[in-house]
Write a structure and sequence with these properties.
5-stranded parallel sheet; elongated
Amino acid sequence: MAQVNDTLAAQPSPASSKRVADKDDLRRIWERATGTSNDGWAYNGDIGRHKVPIKTLPELVQQEIDRQPRLTIEPADLERLMAAADKEQARRDDRRKQERLTGFAATVGPRFASATLENYKASSPEQGKVVNALRGYAGSIKEHVPAGDGIVLFGNAGSGKTHLLVAMGKAAIEAGFSVEWRNGQDVFAAFRDAISSDRSESAIVRRLVKPDVLILDDVLPPGGTLTEYQSATLYRIVDARYRQCRPVWATMNVENGSEAERGMGVQVVDRLRHGALTLHCDWPSYRKVAT
């Protein structure tokens, strides 16, 4: 028994086996957290392997520190690590934002790429009210988007609804959200193509449910009414996003809710309208005035 006790006494305690982290330790922590390791330490959760990070860099640095219970990080070293993580996180956020803005501009096309709320020509009190309401939403966009608060702009064709939602889309990207812009008829065409080429319709739905914000422009066709298949397709997208509190921002050329319900179905309109900022763009077409 004495021999056993002597053996146990000879084992160092966890506290006594701790050591102060050196430069190599700090480098490994940084490389693992940032996903830049070349020594096989990188793992699936690191920021470098994800388009959108699961955790922020400071969180990943702390996670790596917590995985080294026998290392003691000096306060000055920890402060430097966290400051570097904050700086690198800001750099990556800015790069991702610029990439999203560039992609968004390419999708909406050169006519609307430069659209902002500031350069929208509000020449009537009604237009001013709509723009101010959108500015209010944009001012609290970091609360509205996670809450699933949609935007519905309806009214005459040519009233500038696309310009306004493109401007809002850019505001969402600036706030750090992912945004997908789609013309309604292009969405339905994608589903038709999927059927004809024997591809999965569910993959299209998943792609349109994924972004933080989905903008559906001119969701109703020129004739004003969706087919039964189109209505069912739209419902799948809108309902999936509704259940996950991911807002849909939509424009439609209708004069009131009843016309929208006749055109795309009560269930779709009900989900688009629930909790949304719904604005009537009730003024003449810019295109008609221009001619």
